[in-house]
């Protein structure tokens, strides 16, 4: 990464950052004692926080989980670079809530009733198919790994702006390594309770920073009118790479399909990610889940305001005239330039801690998947809950080390490409999971072939997308021509439609042959459970320990 | 309800799948999709609000509207589930 004119290390920012970071680390370790359960060795305890989080804890946990540090950096960076096109994150995070309101309560209920820890557990139980469950588990793990790596990229952007770490080699990576070791240690010891507690600190900091930023920075820059005027001028300039304007303040007629499909596809994909499912399944009751879906949009509002920071960065002249400026640094640089140094430290801490919460949850979710759907399914079917927990803890470390390897060893661009692919991939598990929550109509083989078709098509199309101004490059974006319609749209949605079509056609074909159906271990009542196992449609009962 | 029951189960009460409440809820959850996926309806600069172009403040306003809709659905569904539950227990001979 190119070091910028950030004026070296600012002692005040750094001190504030470090104090907050250390405080949060303490919270992470204390978390293991928070609401300790009678059976601490069960995977429900380490991997789902005892399935007992109420509305407030769930709200912080899910908010801290879904609105990641990378989002805080990348969404304004996209707006900074391209204008309106980057704003699709706002309709995306609006639509996700009404969408998941339809099926998450059913998912929570069946998981509570049957003791499912992962989405792949559900696929296994509902369709009775080991191969379909393996497909769901592998997709989840693959999609999560680069996502964790990007959280570390988020921390790195902040560390770079603060100018800490040596200029090259090991010294430069040292702060990241320390942050990482701390994260790994408390996730190992406290499980999901650690990010749940830390999320309180993180989200509070983020809300404060965003509210201050959207009021204070425009005042300093001469108001929103002035900011958008500057942004319009800057975005209209010709980009040397493509020979076209860099971006625009509104989506042109040609960009509208990709804007809408990106928003819709991302909304559909979000709760197929293992870390989102983990956050939901940790809730105490079905009502807790529903109530949260009604109040989580507060985070969407914050993200929307945050994305406006991209325009403020343009107006403030961040990166102006710097050759090859890394847009990911737009927001940290803006904070550095605009805020007094102590508050810049708070803002940096918000982003840094903001990376730790989702990174912890993601590694726990990937570990749960590996343990339940690969280790127990294929290697040790008679694993005790204590063995499951032990394996999951170790896997959470391995997963994080893998992510660290991505960031340090391999080109960072590679993690970004993979994360892009991850979104396309994870969307391909949507038909099996969401349709499965409502009916057993689909045949498991048909779903598996549909999934494979969507994965193959999505990967191939993404491979063929060249980056702007670099012909013959690959994985340059996530939008491509939609066959038949002839518009540019999100590849994930096109692949999803193909996936669904294949699944429907094959199900009809297979049914004509009247095959022997695999057993479904769920019954309709499982999907309506309010809180206790096997007690459909009963009012709140204290959840009994499994 | 397909409860595994050892004594011959009483005929399961038939509650309608489509109710007025559910229609209202589907409408409230569906409107944001129509509004936001119809990009050309809001892809313009004016009128501005405190200097923010229409494209941006309109979508930000939908964050709030959509949240209110979802909250309304939460209340409606909860009320309906309570009444369905009451009906179920009433019809079941105990």
Automatic annotation (TrEMBL), chain A:
Keyword Transmembrane tagged: yes
Protein name (Swiss-Prot/TrEMBL): Monocarboxylate uptake permease MctP
PROSITE patterns: NA_SOLUT_SYMP_3 (PS50283)
Pfam annotation, one family: SSF
Main location: membrane
Gene3D superfamilies registered for this protein in UniProt: Sodium/glucose cotransporter
Origin superkingdom: Bacteria
Gene name of this polypeptide: mctP
Keyword vocabulary terms for this entry: Membrane, Transmembrane, Transmembrane helix, Transport
UniProt topology in membrane: Multi-pass membrane protein
This protein's record includes keyword Chloroplast: no
Subcellular location: Membrane
InterPro entries: Na/Glc_symporter_sf (IPR038377), Na/solute_symporter (IPR001734), Sodium:Solute_Symporter (IPR050277)
Membrane-spanning residues: 12-31, 52-73, 79-104, 132-154, 174-192, 204-221, 256-273, 293-314, 342-370, 390-410, 416-438, 445-468, 488-510
Similarity annotation: Belongs to the sodium:solute symporter (SSF) (TC 2.A.21) family.
Organism classification: Bacteria, Bacillati, Actinomycetota, Actinomycetes, Kitasatosporales
UniProtKB/TrEMBL annotation, chain B:
One Pfam family recorded for the sequence: DUF3311
Record keywords: Membrane, Transmembrane, Transmembrane helix
Domain of life: Bacteria
Annotated transmembrane regions: 23-43, 55-77
Alphabetical list of InterPro entries matching this protein: DUF3311
Protein's UniProt keywords contain Transmembrane helix: yes
Keyword Cytoplasm attached: no
This protein's name: DUF3311 domain-containing protein
Protein species of origin: Streptacidiphilus cavernicola
């Amino acid at each position: 990464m190119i070091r910028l004119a950030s004026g070296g290390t600012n002692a005040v920012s750094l001190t504030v950052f470090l104090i907050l970071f250390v405080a949060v680390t303490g919270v992470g370790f204390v978390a293991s004692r928070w609401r300790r359960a009678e059976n601490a060795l069960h995977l429900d305890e380490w991997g789902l926080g005892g399935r007992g989080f109420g509305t407030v804890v769930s709200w912080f946990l899910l908010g801290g989980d879904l609105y990641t540090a990378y989002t805080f950096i990348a969404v304004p960076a996209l707006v900074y670079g391209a204008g309106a096109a980057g704003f699709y994150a706002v309709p995306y995070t609006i639509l996700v809530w009404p969408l998941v309101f339809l099926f998450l309560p059913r998912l929570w209920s069946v998981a509570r009733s049957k003791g499912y820890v992962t989405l792949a557990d559900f696929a296994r139980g509902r369709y009775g198919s080991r191969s379909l469950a393996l497909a769901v588990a592998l997709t989840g793990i693959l999609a999560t790994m680069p996502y964790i790596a990007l959280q570390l990229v988020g921390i790195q952007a902040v560390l770079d702006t603060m100018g800490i770490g040596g200029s090259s080699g090991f010294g430069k990576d040292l702060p990241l390594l320390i942050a990482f070791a701390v994260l790994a240690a408390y996730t190992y010891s406290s499980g999901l309770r650690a990010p749940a507690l830390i999320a309180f600190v993180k989200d509070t900091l983020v809300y404060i920073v965003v509210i201050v930023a959207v009021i204070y920075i425009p005042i300093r820059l001469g108001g929103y009118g002035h900011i958008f005027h500057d942004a319009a001028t800057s975005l209209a300039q010709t980009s040397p790479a493509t020979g076209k304007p860099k971006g625009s303040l509104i989506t042109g007629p040609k960009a509208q399909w990709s804007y809408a499909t990106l928003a819709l596809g991302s909304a559909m994909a979000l709760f197929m990610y293992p870390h989102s499912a983990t956050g939901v399944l940790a809730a105490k009751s079905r009502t807790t889940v529903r109530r949260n879906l009604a109040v989580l949009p507060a985070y969407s509002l914050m993200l929307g305001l945050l994305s406006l920071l991209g325009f403020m960065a343009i107006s403030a002249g961040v990166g102006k005239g710097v050759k090859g400026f890394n847009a990911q640094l737009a927001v940290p640089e803006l904070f550095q330039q605009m805020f007094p140094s102590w508050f810049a430290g708070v803002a940096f801490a918000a982003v840094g801690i903001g990376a730790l919460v989702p990174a912890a949850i993601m590694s726990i979710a990937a570990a749960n998947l590996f343990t339940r759907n690969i280790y127990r399914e294929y290697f040790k079917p008679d694993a005790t809950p204590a063995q499951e927990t032990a394996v999951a803890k170790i896997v959470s470390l391995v997963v994080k080390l893998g992510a660290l390897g991505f960031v340090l060893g391999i080109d960072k661009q590679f993690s970004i490409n993979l994360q892009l692919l991850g979104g396309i991939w994870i969307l391909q598990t949507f038909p099996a999971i969401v349709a499965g929550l409502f009916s057993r109509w689909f045949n498991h083989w048909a779903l598996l072939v549909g999934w494979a078709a969507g994965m193959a098509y999505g990967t191939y199309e993404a491979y063929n997308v060249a980056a702007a101004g670099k012909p013959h490059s690959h994985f340059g974006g996530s939008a491509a021509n939609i066959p038949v319609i002839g518009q540019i749209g999100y590849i994930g949605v096109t692949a999803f439609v193909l996936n669904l079509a294949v699944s429907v056609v094959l199900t009809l074909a297979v049914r004509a042959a009247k095959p022997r159906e695999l057993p479904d271990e769920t019954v309709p009542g499982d999907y309506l459970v309010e809180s206790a196992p096997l007690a459909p449609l009963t009012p709140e009962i204290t959840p009994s320990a499994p | 309800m397909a409860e595994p029951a050892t004594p011959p189960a009483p005929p399961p009460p038939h509650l309608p799948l489509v109710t007025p409440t559910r229609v209202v809820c589907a409408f409230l959850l569906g409107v944001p999709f129509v509004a936001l996926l119809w990009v050309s309806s809001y892809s313009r600069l004016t009128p501005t609000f405190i200097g923010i172009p229409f494209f941006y403040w309109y979508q930000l306003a939908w964050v709030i509207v959509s949240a209110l809709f979802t909250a309304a659905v939460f209340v409606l569904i909860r009320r309906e589930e309570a009444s369905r539950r009451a009906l179920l227990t009433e019809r079941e001979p105990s």
